Task: inverse folding
């Protein structure tokens, strides 16, 4: 029997919020999110402040708004604190979060840091590694029924070819982020708790509306390009129109871009169908080519289509500057890989996603949607002359 | 009614020496400073604009008081102060730190180079007397304050005309030409490849371009605001060079490719030439740095003639003695870097060639229209 209570970390984030909306839409369960309050909002205000606008953004049924009000609550907490900073009193005593409600809940650990730079090493470890350990500690206290850990398909690191749904090796990592996610997977899978390791691809906006509250993955890459284009214009007006950069990329390989609603749908379906302890690639069975995705991002950023090379020796100094700015995303665009979805298909059968076809025009729309928001938030800095 | 400072002066026209920076213009200031009739104003705008990052602030649109004008000249600027605090003094900085009262963290913009260039013995005294005089200025537009300052300095040095030269001032050519329509223009040009290579190694240009990289990534100027919302987008290299993290070692290790400087050089040349196209050909002298190195006497004489000052043999000889051979360095680059450098320089180099051709045609046309011996 599926749980009647779910506890979610990262509920104000991109994947976590989509999981909550999917749980609301497809189950009758109560949902408790662990949310960091801010100076202006309580935890619940913050959670609802994210969830309610998403109903319109994702064109979900309006009734979901009352479901959000009635079936979701947030407790103030911080996964970087022991037991997520949640006191015994909060867990066991006050309304509406009686221990009885939380006991046996299914836990979704979606919170993560997507930082990757060396200087953020401590932050990455605090959030992704220590944070996961703290959530596991809490999960044990409430005797959670299943610990769903949202990891990433790209823990595969620099491997190529078909990636099996199995434990990842730290020997293959490209960056600190991947390393931290592998460490966190290990904490979960060795905790003694029943678990599912859910590994989405590069999560993009909603499959129908294209809307997203993410600024990472494809969007982070696009933002890097926008800023690079602005830099070129600052350096020499018109340069972004004329300069053609070379990128190291496997243009003909696939990049696993997957819409957020499809990730959430498969994740929650795995829960509803009580799929067994395993690793699941919540990826796109029909991923676009890396070259196509890059073309879309470059187009949205106002840059010429790049040239592609398999060899970093082919890069000139300007190319290398761009490479440094987009280094994190290299793991998505080199060492092309495909993700084995057999565990998902076996568990979900017909309910498994048939794939989201993302052609160039669609990807440009995704990127344009993000760039419009970015430019509205942060116009290019003024150039002194 | 207050007099128009622009129309007051008689005698030789003032000169503005414009260039991209790293084009040999410091040498021109030194040559000018040897001439008894010329006031050599050096690096005024380099430092009052904080290495080109505070241009709007240095050229306020509205009239300002003498007090405010003096603050622009005297209040230390953040980038230059940061560099000096970390022992990163550009070769252009002339202030005698061991003798004067100003410190690395608190040096007025005009004390970095302009005042010590005029009086290396007691720059503090000249600064104090200038400040006393300038603070009493009426509320006038910025260019008029500058004219009053130049005239005061001309009076102090008994010179007939001022020659302002700041590294990289081609960037603000439109502002300077609009501010000083009475000035004639010297455009100093150097081979883009060597200029870019020199920029990539020069403290001031490294700082200016670094700030551009940081500003575009953060969306805000990190020296003007503490907003670090987009800090995560900075590479470790750029984050390590934020004002709050800055270290000399990080700055020395900062990788600034010459080809990126070459793109910048091309942009400055193309835009600068667009501005210079509006200057009357007789009010514009283009000097190629390589010609100055090859035939210093001839170029120095042509500069003197253009400035309408006496060409004394002694001045030409002493000035020519300042010129040292400077073989090109771009040809020592590895082939791939050279290709990138030359490709990046191409728009600027082509624009210079087109501009030179057009200037030749205009000169020929003017020569045909003007009777021999007459001058207007």
Result:
């Amino acid at each position: 029997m599926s749980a009647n209570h779910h506890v979610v970390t990262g509920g104000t984030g991109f994947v976590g919020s989509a999981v909550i909306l999917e749980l609301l839409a497809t189950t009758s369960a109560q949902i408790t999110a662990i949310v960091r309050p801010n100076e202006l909002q309580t935890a619940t205000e913050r959670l609802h402040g994210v969830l309610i606008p998403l109903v319109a953004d994702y064109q979900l049924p309006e009734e979901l708004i009352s479901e959000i009000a009635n079936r979701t609550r947030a407790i103030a907490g911080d996964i970087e604190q022991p037991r997520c900073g949640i006191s015994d009193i909060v867990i066991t005593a006050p309304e509406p979060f009686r221990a009885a409600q939380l006991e046996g809940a299914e836990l979704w650990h979606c919170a993560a840091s997507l930082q990757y730079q060396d200087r953020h090493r401590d932050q990455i470890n605090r959030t992704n590694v220590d944070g996961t350990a703290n959530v596991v500690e809490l999960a044990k206290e409430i005797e959670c029924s299943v610990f769903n850990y949202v990891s990433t398909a790209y823990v595969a690191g620099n491997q190529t070819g078909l990636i099996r749904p199995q434990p990842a090796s730290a020997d293959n990592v490209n960056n600190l982020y991947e390393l931290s996610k592998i460490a966190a997977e290990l904490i979960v899978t060795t905790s003694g708790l029943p678990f599912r390791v859910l590994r989405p691809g590069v999560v993009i906006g909603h499959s129908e509306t294209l809307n997203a509250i993410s600024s990472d993955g494809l969007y982070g890459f696009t933002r890097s390009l926008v800023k690079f284009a602005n830099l070129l214009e600052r350096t020499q007006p018109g340069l972004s129109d004329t300069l053609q950069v070379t990128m190291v990329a496997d243009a003909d390989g696939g990049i696993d871009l997957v819409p957020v609603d499809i990730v959430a749908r498969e994740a929650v379906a795995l829960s509803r169908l009580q799929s067994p302890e395993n690793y699941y690639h919540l990826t796109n069975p029909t991923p676009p080519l890396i070259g196509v995705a890059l073309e879309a991002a470059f187009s949205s950023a106002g840059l010429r289509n790049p040239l592609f090379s398999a060899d970093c020796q082919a890069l000139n100094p300007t190319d290398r500057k761009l490479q440094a700015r987009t280094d994190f995303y290299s793991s998505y665009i080199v060492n092309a890989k495909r993700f084995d979805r057999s565990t998902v298909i076996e568990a979900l059968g017909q309910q498994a996603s048939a794939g989201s076809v993302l052609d160039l025009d669609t990807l440009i729309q995704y990127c344009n949607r993000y760039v419009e928001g970015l430019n509205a938030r942060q116009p290019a800095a003024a150039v002194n002359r | 009614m207050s007099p128009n400072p622009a129309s007051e002066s008689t005698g030789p026209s003032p000169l503005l020496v414009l260039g991209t920076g790293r084009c040999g213009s410091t040498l021109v200031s030194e040559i000018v400073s040897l001439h008894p009739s010329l006031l050599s104003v050096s690096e005024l705008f380099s430092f009052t604009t904080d290495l080109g990052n505070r241009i709007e602030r240095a050229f306020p649109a509205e009239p300002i008081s003498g007090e405010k004008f003096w603050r622009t000249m005297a209040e230390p600027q953040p980038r230059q102060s940061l560099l000096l605090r970390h022992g990163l003094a550009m070769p252009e900085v002339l202030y005698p730190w061991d003798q004067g009262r100003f410190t690395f963290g608190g040096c007025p913009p005009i004390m970095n180079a302009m005042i010590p260039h005029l009086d290396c013995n007691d720059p503090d005294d000249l600064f104090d007397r200038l400040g006393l005089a300038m603070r009493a200025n009426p509320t006038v537009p910025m260019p008029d304050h500058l004219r009053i300052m130049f005239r005061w300095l001309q009076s102090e040095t008994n010179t007939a005309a001022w020659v302002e030269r700041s590294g990289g001032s081609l960037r603000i050519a439109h502002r300077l030409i609009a501010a000083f329509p009475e000035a004639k223009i010297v455009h100093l040009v150097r081979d883009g490849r060597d200029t870019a290579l020199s920029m990539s190694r020069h403290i001031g240009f490294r700082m200016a371009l670094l700030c551009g990289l940081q500003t575009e990534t953060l969306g805000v100027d990190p020296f003007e605001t503490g907003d670090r919302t987009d800090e995560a987008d900075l590479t470790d290299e750029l984050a390590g060079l934020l004002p709050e993290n800055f270290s000399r070692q990080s700055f020395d290790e900062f990788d600034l490719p010459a080809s990126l400087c070459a793109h910048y050089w091309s942009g400055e040349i193309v835009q600068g030439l667009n501005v210079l196209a509006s200057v009357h050909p007789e009010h514009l002298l283009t000097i190629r740095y390589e010609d100055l190195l090859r035939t210093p006497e001839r170029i120095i004489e042509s500069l003197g003639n253009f400035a309408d000052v006496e060409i004394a043999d002694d001045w030409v000889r002493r000035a020519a003695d300042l010129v040292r051979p400077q073989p090109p360095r771009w040809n020592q680059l590895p082939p791939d870097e050279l290709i990138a450098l030359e490709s990046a320089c191409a728009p600027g180099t082509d624009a210079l060639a087109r501009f030179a051709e057009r200037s030749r045609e205009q000169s020929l046309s003017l020569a045909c229209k003007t009777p021999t011996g007459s001058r207007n």
